Amino acid sequence: MRYVIVGTGAAGATAARTIKRMDRDGEVVIIGDERFFPYNRYLLTEFLSGAVSAAELFHTSEEFFEAMDIRLRKGQAVERVYPNDKTIRFAHNEVMSYDRLLIATGRSPSLGPVLRPYAKLIQRYYTFEDILLIQKRLPEVREVIVSGRGLSALDLIQGMYRVGKKITYITRGQAIDVSTVESHLMGDLDSALAEREINFVHDDRIVAIECVDNRYLVKTFQGKELWGDLVFAWDNYTPNVGCLRNTGIEVKTGILVDLRMRSSAPEVYAAGDCVEIYHPTLKNYWINFGWPNAVEQGRIAGKNMAGDNEEYQIHETTLFNILGKPLEARWWD
Amino acid sequence: MKPPSSTSLASPSKPAGGTKAKRRDISVRFCGIAGDGVVTCGRILAGACASLGLDLMVNDIFSAEIRGKGKSTTTVRFSSRIVHSMGDGVEVLVGLAGKESIEEIKDVRPGGCVIYGSSIPGDLPEDDSLAAHVPPNIHGFGVPLRKLANQATGSNQGKNIVAMGALCYLYSLPQEAFIEQLRKNFGRKSSRALEVNIKAFTLGFEYCKEHYPLSFELEVLDTLEPRPLYTGNDALAHGALDWGLKFFAGYPITPATKIMEICAKELPKNGGWTIQVEDEIAAISNVMGAFFAGKRAMTSTAGPGLSLMSEMIGLAVMAEIPAVIVDVQRGGPATGMPTKVEQGDLNIALYGGAGDCPRVVMAPSTVRECYTGIQLALDLAEKYQTPVIFLSDLFLGQRMVTTSIPKRVERDRCTRKKPFPGELGTYERFKITEDGVSPLLIPGEEGGFYTITGLEHTPSGNPNFESNVHSMMTEKRYRKMKAMCVDLPPADVLGDKDALIGIVTWGSTLGSVVEGMELAREQGVKSKVLKSIMINPQHEDSFREFFASSARIIVPEVNYEGQYAALLKSRYGIQPVEMHISAVDPVSPAKIANRIIEVQDELTH
Ligand SMILES: Cc1cc2nc3c(=O)[nH]c(=O)nc-3n(C[C@H](O)[C@H](O)[C@H](O)COP(=O)(O)OP(=O)(O)OC[C@H]3O[C@@H](n4cnc5c(N)ncnc54)[C@H](O)[C@@H]3O)c2cc1C
Q1: Tens digits of per-residue pLDDT, B485-529?
Q2: Which residue from B22, B301, B316, B481 puts its CA 20 to 30 A from A9's CA?
Q3: Does the C-beta of A41 come closer than 6 Å to ligand 1?
């Protein structure tokens, strides 16, 4: 039995390990387009600010894959899945067959039509490679501009603050834009931003970016002109489902799966940030993301691929569980 | 912050391999099939690195088939420190041919990278996919070589230059140095050729900049000066030419042909001659004729050619006619392995031919020594009226290195011993002298009538088969080898002079030995090596002194029999640890280091 897993994130790596534990003789191939060993993505900011070491960041190594007899193919992207032939095609045109397939491709920050033309001027903040690139540039950076939604924006601001950079934060709303944070915390967050002398630009958004002498001039809808040495911006997070487009496998925003992590195609499973899971109470699909969610979904997908029959339990209160710690602790630690 | 254990993927943690530290020493291997432009890649990279003042060594490995789709590789090792050898393994593999490059992956060091074509048309089966074979401890970079080459040149040609652009970005090398090399390479052809190649380079560079922005860094010191590049064959030919070579005769043979090509181009400019003759017997005969007539002359060949020359070498010994024979050794016996290296011709060089047949055998160890050594060979041949066999090898002859070649040449540092004008009436061609060297008159001089022959002869050159004459003349011929010692450079000791482990090696193996010694020293084991260009005769005192100061001697060489070890054993009565390294690839410094450490262990336990 050949199990092929696309995506080396939390969901993919957990599934690989689970399958191998249940089916020792099964062949497990895990493919990821990042060129590093799987790591704890949620620790990237701590790594950037020096709070955790590379050894803590990486939860796998060469020896791990050898000992588990899992074949890792990193730095290689899967371009398309052919569920009828039970094959996948890599970006370099190699064709590989599978008996059971798991799509665990996560999601990526995405840019809307206004920001898209400036993609080359925007620094992404999502992968280990992004962090290494930022580290390389940091000595020349004094001021950064951040524009983006969600907890990741907070995480990024925290990281930049820790490495001593002056921060301008642009948000579309009145306050910091973190929909999943309980409302009573919002005020505290705002005052924390103010305390850290973060330049808070609210009710506004970036409409243009220019690079002038290695610095960036950011123009906003309200007509402000802001200067920075590094610009971080995103509009949304989008599940990485490109390899499933027009394959017949059902995809809305994410890949539609049932509680056993099965997609609409036989022998094709999906887990983690790239899926929309069926919510039995809502009777609809539901986007559930975050590290603990990806690990749990990866575990269940792995078990079911190896022949078990387990269902995922939705805990609505932990839709975005920040690793068991309340947001306060994460922000003020 | 630590995640709760239920959500963690706790397992042995290790970083993914540093990308931050600056690399000092990089080896890049290009692998392709005929038409992929592997050699061009090597030359451009080497040219660019040399212009940056880096030290480097280039080694080409071709398939033996002269035509057809054989695989070839070019490896370039460059560093801001001295490069003694090709080292062990490579940092980067550039797979211009995907399937054929798969077996090269085993040589890529952990943390290194493989650049592979990602726009191969059609379905690529897993077994044929280079990417599928890249293990996780190596970085793989897919670059659409074919697609970008087509964009630049309108054909598949130019994949190599696209790959060069990719390499330049990935290792943060200065683009201008490469563009300059493209100008040198393609500028002469046509402005379009240059334009499309610059475009191909730029497309490769920009592709990596966009897709793999995180580049590795190489330490390039601003203080370094551009360096000239030579192959051993180049240096050897130019050494001979600068020394006043006037005549070259030869028959083409891999890997020596280049020497003949250079001579053919350069000699006529100085009133000299190069002739391509029908075979190697004719080649050496011509050289002996020219030398006899007072012109510095040389031939070059490989093992099979040297076998053919054996009989004429005997004549040169017997008739005391100078000749210089360059043997760029390759794998043998017989036709053997024309494109692989081996140091297997030592025995035929030392002993090939009939009778007691003393001759000079030399073996340069470096490209620089190819230049200086061949000049000494021409001198010794001229002064001592003897054939000199100069044993280069494929690895030394074809590898390209940055080196400095002495600018000042003192011509005529040795002259032919000639009879004084008043002696012509009593002239004896083979006159018995203290040093064994008899005055040699250029034939045809008025009053200087004499005979020379391959038969045993009296001092005047008349055939004679009496025992006492034969003994006297044999003794005379051997005496020259002893007398020569005043002109021989003493052997050099490199490494830790006080070390108890001594290594004696010959030819191109020296570089790997020096690097192996450095590796062993990093492990705390000291050693030294004796470097001598002379194989026969030798500056014996240097050898005896070296042996006396060493508790254990290691003799590494690239042949099955241990031919040099056999010579040293019989000449000096030593019992060395012999390392008979199998032919084909350059010697591994790591293997040398391991043996040094093993010998140290034996000494201490
Ligand atoms: C800075 C930062 C801080 C975070 N902090 C927290 C936190 O505190 N708590 C929390 O719960 N979550 C946090 N998250 C989010 C969390 O890391 C993700 O929810 C989680 O990693 C999702 O795991 P996954 O396996 O589904 O996807 P991912 O971890 O995104 O892994 C998917 C992998 O698949 C690869 N891939 C995509 N497409 C392809 C393809 N076609 N071929 C091959 N490979 C492909 C991707 O490159 C990626 O490596 C944070 C994220 C970031 C960036």
Answers
A1: 999 999 999 999 999 999 999 999 999 999 999 999 999 999 999
A2: B22
A3: yes
